[in-house]
Write a structure and sequence with these properties.
By secondary structure, the protein is α/β, with parallel strands linked by helices. It has six helices and six strands; from the N terminus they run βααββαβαβαβα. A six-stranded mixed beta sheet has the order 2-3-1-4-5-6, sandwiched between helices. It is globular and about 40 Å long. The termini are close together. Guanosine-5'-diphosphate binds next to helix 1. Keywords: Cell membrane, Cytoplasm, GTP-binding, Membrane, Nucleotide-binding, Ribosome biogenesis, RNA-binding, rRNA-binding.
Length: 166
């Protein structure tokens, strides 16, 4: 149960906060992932039997310049190299153009994709269902997990699920 997982999502949804919570040990497995991907490793989750290497892919947005286009294409190619993708959204915000752009790009990725709804500490529990509703048919999600990366709610459960799927 080991593998590489890329994290995508709009700015400020909590990707770095999640990675900081997960961050840990040195990389014991490198397998055949390309050099470009190695450089993006941001966090490693390790247990006795499992290791998940997380890769931050900050640049998936509608490109408006050649440089943007280069960054977006680089991020997309990373998604094709990993074992699974984690798409993070902010529970406080309604689904927007930035989310939709990423979702459209994810439709072409033939990997298990997890929807992670972050910042649930900021919303009333009754609101969660309507957030899930906004996304549930957008893609064929492997799993949907509400979490708080900041406070840790449901993070261990999610990591265990992910590790057992890999
Ligand atoms: P990134 O741009 O996706 O990497 O987002 P960051 O990890 O930098 O987080 C953006 C902001 O959201 C920071 O101020 C974080 O402290 C805050 N944040 C991240 N996760 C949570 C969460 O689960 N709950 C709350 N309340 N704030 C969060
Ligand atoms: Mg970040």
């Amino acid at each position: 149960h080991s593998g590489f997982v890329a994290i995508v999502g709009r700015p400020n949804v909590g990707k770095s906060t999640f990675l900081n919570r997960v961050v840990g040990q040195k990389v014991a497995i490198m397998s055949n992932v390309a050099q470009t991907t190695r450089n993006k490793i941001q966090g490693i989750y390790t247990t006795a039997q499992e290791q998940i290497v997380f890769i931050d892919t900050p640049g998936i947005f509608k490109p408006t310049s050649k440089l943007d286009e280069f960054m977006v294409n680089s991020a997309i190619s990373t998604l094709n190299e990993v074992d699974a993708v984690l798409f993070m959204v902010n529970a406080e915000q309604t689904r927007g153009a930035g989310d939709n752009y990423i979702i459209d790009r994810l439709k072409m990725i033939k990997k298990p994709i997890y929807l992670v709804i972050n910042k649930i500490d900021q919303i009333h529990p009754d609101k969660l269902l309507s957030i899930v509703d906004q996304y549930k048919d957008a893609l064929k999600w492997q799993e949907v997990y509400p979490i708080s990366a900041l406070q840790g709610n449901n993070v261990d459960e999610f990591l265990q699920q992910l590790a057992s799927d890999l």
